[in-house]
Amino acid sequence: MLDILIKNARIIDGTNAKAFHADVGIKDGKISAVGSIQQSATREIDAHGHLLTPGFVDIHTHYDGQVCWDKEITPSCWHGVTTIVMGNCGVGFAPVKPGTEQTLVRIMESVEDIPGAALHDGIQWGWESFSEYLDAIDTPYTMDVGTQVPHVALRHYVMGDRCYDDAGPQDMQEMANLTRDALKAGAMGFSTSRFYGHKDPQGNVIPGTNASAQEMLTIASAFETVDHGTIEIISDYLQDDDEVAWIEDIIRSTGRPVTTLATAGPSRVWQEAERLQKEGLSWRPQVGARPASILMSLKGTLNPMSIYPAYSDIRDLPVNEQISCLRDPEFRHRIRTENPRKANKKQQAAFMFMSDFDHIYRMDNLSYEPSHAENSIAGIAQREGSEPLDVLMDALADEIPLLYLFGRYRDNLDEQIEAIKNPLSVFGLSDGGAHCGVLCDASVPTYMLSYFARDRTRGPTMPLEQVVHKMTQDTAQLYGMQDRGVIAEGYKADLNLIDFEALKLGNPEMVYDLPSGGKRLIQKASGYLATICNGVVTFENGQATGEKPGRLLRGGQ
Question: What is the SS3 assignment for 468?
Answer without folding.
Answer: helix
